[in-house]
């Protein structure tokens, strides 16, 4: 199918390592460093799965338990939307397999301003989310090693948890891929133990009622979906790092779909197993549902330790992947003059300036959170990221709809066109649902973040115009 965009792809910029910006390390013309290596399908899939599944899975069953098993219906509906979004990213990456993902797609279809908004919103999402993950990880670390008795000890632990994955990124894509693959395997072992093993201990009497919250079933689905909407953030991971993926036109789409479906299976099976092994009355009050499930299945109290360790591994792997993504989008935008030029600097396949700036910003936010002595301000900022993440999703989905609408009719396979249009429409609905689920306050404050970005865009666009004059 032939499609066109309003802005032609830019010429590759020179990479400090001696390669073009579009030539990933490890390929002819790329960096010869042994620390830079392109991601194959397994690592790209692990990047998607590892970034989707962070620490939230370990609290997910308890979060939706008050609504009853109707929440499984909401999770199923959301899974369909997430897979549709994954398919859209796969089709877009097939068209344009450059690093940057939603930024690249939005800019090619709608111009510099839309591309910048996608990059800016995604960048905000990544570094605020990294701080949130690190702070949440301290809670699990406290089960193994008491660190929360003093807030500055907890703060130091949160900073260490952020900087270790950053160091892996500084070491190069080879280390990023290795950490991501190992952490994904390690965290899935205990999750699969509960998800699959729990089915053998399943007791229907423990499920509770279908609509435990009362009221209409549709209202219960919507209410539980609001808690589940953000479980699939990270579906774009392989697309954002497409420039580092081997045979990206083929593998980005495959990794995105396989990773999303794999995460969905873990979510669904894990939630069902916990529902069927922990009584509903206990589950609604549980602070460690997977620990309770393990204890119910095998007896003893060792489940808390096992799940805490799995959660730490999960969050560390998630931070490893998100740290890379936080640098890739500014890198792509900087190549086009829409972010400061320093963000184009790469070493061993990794945009090191982007990694450094991101980890510093997330560290400052973490320190501020502990200085405030309250999680309230921090929770508000995290809620904002749930809105900012939808901006690049919507723009990427709109880009796919644009390409479908602007393609030459004589070159279009009608059945494929209809299929892609339906998938893109479902993905657009999923993205809009994400915006609605973020809430009025988050949307209001998220728009303020975007307005700040408009000022940054004005400066960068002006400097770019002056350089071209």
Structure overview:
The chain is an all-alpha fold. Helices cover 70% and strands 0% of the residues. It has helices spanning 41-52, 60-64, 70-95, 102-110, 112-144, 151-170, 173-197, 217-228, 237-240, 248-277, 280-283, 289-298, 303-335, 352-372, 376-388, 390-406, 414-438, 440-468. Helix 3 packs across helix 8, helix 3 runs antiparallel to helix 10 (248-277) and helix 5 packs antiparallel against helix 13 (303-335). The longest helix has 33 residues, at 112-144. The chain is globular, with a radius of gyration of 22 Å. The two termini are 37 Å apart. The relative contact order is 0.19.
Q: What's a quick, concise take on this entry?
A:
This protein has 469 residues and is mainly α. The chain is built from 18 helices and no strands.
Low-confidence stretches are 1-33
Mean pLDDT: 78
State the end-to-end distance.
37 Å
Number of DSSP helical runs: 18
- Rg, Å, rounded: 22 Å
**Secondary structural class:** mainly alpha
Helical amount among residues, as a percent range?
55-70%
Largest sheet: none
- What is the strand content? under 5%
Elements, N to C (H/E): HHHHHHHHHHHHHHHHHH
Shape: globular
Number of strands: 0
Descriptive key words:
469 residues; mainly alpha; 18 helices; 0% strand; disordered N terminus
List the helices and strands and how they pair.
Layout: H1 41-52, H2 60-64, H3 70-95, H4 102-110, H5 112-144, H6 151-170, H7 173-197, H8 217-228, H9 237-240, H10 248-277, H11 280-283, H12 289-298, H13 303-335, H14 352-372, H15 376-388, H16 390-406, H17 414-438, H18 440-468
């Amino acid at each position: 199918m032939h499609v066109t965009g309003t802005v032609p792809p830019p010429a590759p910029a020179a990479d400090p390592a001696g390669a073009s910006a579009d030539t990933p390390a490890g390929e002819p013309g790329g960096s010869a460093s042994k620390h830079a290596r392109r991601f194959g399908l397994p690592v790209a899939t692990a990047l998607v799965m590892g970034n989707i599944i962070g620490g939230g899975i370990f609290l997910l069953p308890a979060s939706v338990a008050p609504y009853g098993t109707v929440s499984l219906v909401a999770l199923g509906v959301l899974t369909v939307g997430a897979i549709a979004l994954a398919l859209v990213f796969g089709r877009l990456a097939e068209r344009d397999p450059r690093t940057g993902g939603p930024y690249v797609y939005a800019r090619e279809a709608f111009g510099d301003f839309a591309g910048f908004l996608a990059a800016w919103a995604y960048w905000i999402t990544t570094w605020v989310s990294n701080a949130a993950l690190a702070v949440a990880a301290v809670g699990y670390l406290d089960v193994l090693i008491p660190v929360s008795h003093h807030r500055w000890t907890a703060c130091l632990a949160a900073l260490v948890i952020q900087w270790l994955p950053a160091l892996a990124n500084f070491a190069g894509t080879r280390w990023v891929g290795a950490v991501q693959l190992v952490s994904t395997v390690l965290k899935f072992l205990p999750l699969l133990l509960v998800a699959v093993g729990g089915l053998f201990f399943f007791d229907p009497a423990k499920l509770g009622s279908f609509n435990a919250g009362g009221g209409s079933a549709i209202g219960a689905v919507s209410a539980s979906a609001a808690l589940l909407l953000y479980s699939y953030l990270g579906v774009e991971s392989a697309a954002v790092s497409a420039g580092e993926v081997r045979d990206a036109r083929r593998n980005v789409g495959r990794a995105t779909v396989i990773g999303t479906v794999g995460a969905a299976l873990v979510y669904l099976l894990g939630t069902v197993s916990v529902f069927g092994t922990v009584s509903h009355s206990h589950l609604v009050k549980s602070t460690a549902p997977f620990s309770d499930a393990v204890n119910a299945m095998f007896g003893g109290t060792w489940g808390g330790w096992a799940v805490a360790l799995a959660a730490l591994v999960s969050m560390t792997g998630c931070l490893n992947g998100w740290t890379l993504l936080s640098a890739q989008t500014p890198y792509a935008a900087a190549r086009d003059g829409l972010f400061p030029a320093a963000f184009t600097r790469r070493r061993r396949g990794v945009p090191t300036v982007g990694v450094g700036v991101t980890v510093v910003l997330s560290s400052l936010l973490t320190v501020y959170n502990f200085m405030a002595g309250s999680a309230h301000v921090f929770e508000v900022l995290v809620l904002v990221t749930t809105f900012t993440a939808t901006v690049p999703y919507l723009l990427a989905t709109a880009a796919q709809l644009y390409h479908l609408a602007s393609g030459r009719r004589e070159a279009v396979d009608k059945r494929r066109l209809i299929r892609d249009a339906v998938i893109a429409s479902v993905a657009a609905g999923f993205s809009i649902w994400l915006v609605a689920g973020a809430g009025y306050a988050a949307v209001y404050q998220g728009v303020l973040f975007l307005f700040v970005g408009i000022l940054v865009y004005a400066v960068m666009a002006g400097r770019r115009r002056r350089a071209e004059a």
